[in-house]
C-alpha cells in the first residue's frame, strides 16, 4: 500500500492513534494520545447501532448504520478540538439540517457566480464567461472552471484563500501528519496557472513567493524547487536529494502566467528572503529577486552534466525514474521534454530582458535558447511523431538513443514549438518545425487517442516497454490505460496553435465533456479498463 502519489494507501495512515465510540446516538472518532479527544464526529446512528468489520487482515474499519431515506444514508460531519465541541456541531447540523443545507447551497451559488464577475468582492480576479450554443464545449469549459473554484479553501494557514491540488501524503485525522488534503504540487499547479491567475491573481502571486522562498540552493549541487508544500503547516517537501526535474519549468510556467496576465512587471524586482525551512541552504545569499530566480530557472541545466557528443547543449538529469514524473522506467537521463523546455525558458528570458531594455542579455539568452532547441530537434526527433531519450554510455564518451512513445514528449514538445517559443521568444516556425508538429499530431491520434474511451492514453501500445498484462507500467496516469487530465488540454492547444486540423482539436474538446459525466476529473482519467 505504498503506491505512488498516495494511490492505494489506506486512509488514514495513523488510524491506530484513534478509537471509535458512540455517544448520544453519534459515532465519534476519538484521539487516544491527545487530551483534545475528538477530531471528527461521524454519522448519525440509528439507535446507537455500531458494527465493526475486519478488512484486509488485521486492519479495521468502522461501518456505521445511518437512517435511510430513499436509498440515501444521512451522515453529518464535524471537526473539533474536543468531543463536546464535535457533538455540539453535529447536533446543530442534525437539528437544522434543511436550513443549513440551503444556506450552504446559497453560499456556494454566490461563490460560483462570483468567480465570473469582475466586481465580485471575494476573489481578486475573475474567469471569463464562455458564450456559445455548443453544449459540449460549454460543458468542458465550465467543468474546468468548476475544478479550480471548488478547490478553494478558506480555513488554511496559507492565507484567506488557498487552492489545494492534491491530498499529498495520506490523510491523518489529527491534521498533524503529512499534507492531509492541504497539499499543493508545483508541477500540478502549473497546469492551471492561467486560470488560477485570472481567478485569483493575489493568491497566484503569494504562491509564487512561497515556492521561491522555500527553494534550496545547496553548495555544489543543483538548486531545488520544492516538489510540494502544505498549505496549512506551510512546510515544503522535496524529492529527496534528487531534484524533481520537471519542477524547473513548472515553476517557470506559474511565474510566466502571472506576469503575462497581470502585467505586474514590478514583481520582477521584488526582493524575497528564504524561509526558516531552507535558510541553511542559501549560503551567503540573504535574498533573491523574482527576476534573479527566473535566471536560475532558465540556466538550471548548467548544473547538470552534458551528454557527450551534444556540444554541451543536451543535459543528463540522471537515471532515477522518480525524477521524471514516474512516467515509465525507460523515461530517464536526457529526456526530450526537458531539453525543449530548457530552450523555451532561455528564449523567454531573452524576450523578457529585451522588454526591460537589456539588449545584450536578450541577445545572449535568445541565442542560447535557439542553440538548445536546434540540438534537441536534430538529436531527439525520431521522425514519426515520437522522440528519443539520450543515454550516456558508461565511459561517458558517447550516447545511445531510446525511443519512448509517451504523451509527455507529445505535449511538451508541441507546446514549446507551437506556443511558447513563438509567443515568448519571437521564434518563427520553420518548415521543419511544422513537419514535427504534423507528425506529432498524427502519432497522438493514431497511437494515443482512444475514440471509445473519449480520452488519451499516456503511453502508446507500440512502446517497447508496453505489455498487456501490465498496462499501468508504473502509474495509472502515465501508462497505457489512461492519462493525466491536463495532457489532453495541452494537445488541443498545440494542435490549434500549430495550424493543424481544427476538427481534431474539437473532437478532443467535445470528448472531454463526455468524460465529465463519469464523475469528478482526478489525477488519472481512464481510456480503457
Question: Care to give the gist of this entry?
Answer:
This protein has 529 residues and is an alpha+beta fold. The chain contains 14 helices and 21 strands. β18 (449-450) and β19 (455-456) form a beta hairpin.
Write up what this structure looks like.
By secondary structure, this protein is α+β, with helices and mostly antiparallel strands. Helix content is 39%, strand content 13%. The chain has 14 helices and 21 strands. The chain has helices at residues 83-95, 97-114, 135-150, 186-190, 193-199, 201-213, 247-262, 290-298, 336-355, 359-380, 407-425, 431-448, 485-497, 502-516; strands at residues 18-23, 26-31, 38-44, 51-54, 60-63, 68-69, 72-73, 77-79, 152-153, 162-163, 183-185, 228-230, 236-237, 271-272, 288-289, 387-392, 399-404, 449-450, 455-456, 482-483, 525-526. The strands form 9 sheets. The protein has a 4-stranded antiparallel sheet, covered by helices on one side. The chain has a 3-stranded antiparallel sheet with strand order 11-12-13. α5 runs parallel beside α7 (247-262) and α9 (336-355) runs antiparallel to α10 (359-380). The two termini are 21 Å apart. Residues 1-11, 34-73 and 168-179 have low confidence and may be disordered.
Amino acid at each position: 500500500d505504498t503506491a505512488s502519489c498516495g494511490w492505494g494507501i489506506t486512509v488514514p495512515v495513523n488510524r491506530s492513534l484513534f478509537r471509535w465510540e458512540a455517544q448520544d446516538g453519534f459515532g465519534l472518532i476519538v484521539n487516544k494520545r491527545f487530551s483534545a479527544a475528538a477530531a471528527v464526529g461521524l454519522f448519525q446512528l440509528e439507535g446507537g447501532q455500531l458494527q465493526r468489520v475486519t478488512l484486509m487482515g488485521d486492519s479495521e474499519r468502522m461501518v456505521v448504520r445511518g437512517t435511510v431515506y430513499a436509498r440515501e444514508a444521512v451522515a453529518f460531519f464535524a471537526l473539533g478540538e474536543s468531543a463536546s465541541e464535535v457533538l455540539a456541531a453535529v447536533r446543530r447540523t442534525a437539528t437544522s439540517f434543511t436550513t443549513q443545507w440551503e444556506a450552504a447551497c446559497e453560499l456556494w451559488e454566490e461563490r460560483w457566480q462570483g468567480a465570473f464577475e469582475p466586481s465580485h468582492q471575494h476573489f481578486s480576479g475573475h474567469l471569463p464567461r464562455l458564450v456559445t450554443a455548443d453544449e459540449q464545449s460549454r460543458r468542458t469549459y465550465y467543468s474546468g472552471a468548476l475544478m479550480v473554484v471548488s478547490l478553494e479553501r478558506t480555513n488554511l494557514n496559507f492565507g484567506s484563500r488557498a487552492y489545494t491540488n492534491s491530498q499529498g501524503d495520506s490523510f491523518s485525522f489529527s491534521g498533524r501528519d503529512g499534507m492531509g488534503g492541504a497539499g499543493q504540487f508545483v508541477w500540478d499547479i502549473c497546469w492551471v496557472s492561467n486560470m488560477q491567475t485570472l481567478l485569483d491573481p493575489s493568491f497566484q502571486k503569494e504562491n509564487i513567493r512561497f515556492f521561491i522562498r522555500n527553494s534550496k540552493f545547496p553548495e555544489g549541487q543543483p538548486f531545488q524547487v520544492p516538489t510540494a508544500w502544505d498549505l496549512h503547516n506551510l512546510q515544503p517537501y522535496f524529492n529527496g536529494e534528487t531534484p524533481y526535474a520537471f519542477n524547473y519549468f513548472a515553476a517557470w510556467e506559474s511565474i510566466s502566467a502571472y506576469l503575462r496576465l497581470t502585467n505586474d512587471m514590478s514583481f520582477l524586482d521584488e526582493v524575497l528572503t528564504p524561509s526558516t525551512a531552507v535558510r541553511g541552504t542559501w549560503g551567503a545569499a540573504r535574498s533573491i529577486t523574482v527576476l534573479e530566480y527566473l535566471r536560475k530557472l532558465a540556466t538550471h541545466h548548467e548544473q547538470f552534466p552534458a551528454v557527450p557528443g551534444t556540444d554541451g547543449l543536451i543535459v543528463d538529469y540522471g537515471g532515477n525514474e522518480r525524477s521524471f514524473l514516474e512516467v515509465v522506467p525507460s523515461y530517464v537521463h536526457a529526456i526530450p521534454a526537458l531539453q525543449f523546455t530548457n530552450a523555451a525558458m532561455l528564449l523567454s528570458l531573452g524576450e523578457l530582458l529585451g522588454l526591460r531594455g537589456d539588449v545584450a542579455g536578450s541577445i545572449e539568452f535568445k541565442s542560447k535558447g535557439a542553440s538548445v532547441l536546434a540540438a534537441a530537434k536534430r538529436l531527439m526527433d525520431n521522425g514519426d511523431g515520437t522522440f528519443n531519450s539520450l543515454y550516456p554510455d558508461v565511459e561517458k564518451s558517447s550516447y545511445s538513443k531510446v525511443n519512448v512513445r509517451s504523451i509527455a514528449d507529445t505535449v511538451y514538445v508541441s507546446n514549446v514549438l507551437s506556443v511558447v517559443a513563438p509567443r515568448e521568444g519571437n521564434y518563427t516556425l520553420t518548415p521543419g518545425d511544422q513537419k514535427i508538429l504534423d507528425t506529432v499530431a498524427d502519432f497522438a491520434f493514431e497511437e494515443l487517442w482512444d475514440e471509445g474511451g473519449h480520452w488519451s492514453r499516456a503511453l502508446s501500445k507500440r512502446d517497447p516497454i508496453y505489455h498487456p498484462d501490465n498496462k499501468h507500467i508504473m502509474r495509472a496516469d502515465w501508462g497505457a490505460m489512461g492519462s493525466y487530465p491536463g495532457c489532453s488540454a495541452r494537445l488541443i492547444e498545440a494542435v490549434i496553435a500549430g495550424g493543424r486540423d481544427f476538427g481534431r482539436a474539437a473532437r478532443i474538446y467535445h470528448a472531454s465533456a463526455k468524460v465529465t459525466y463519469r464523475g469528478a476529473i482526478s489525477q488519472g482519467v481512464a481510456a480503457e479498463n
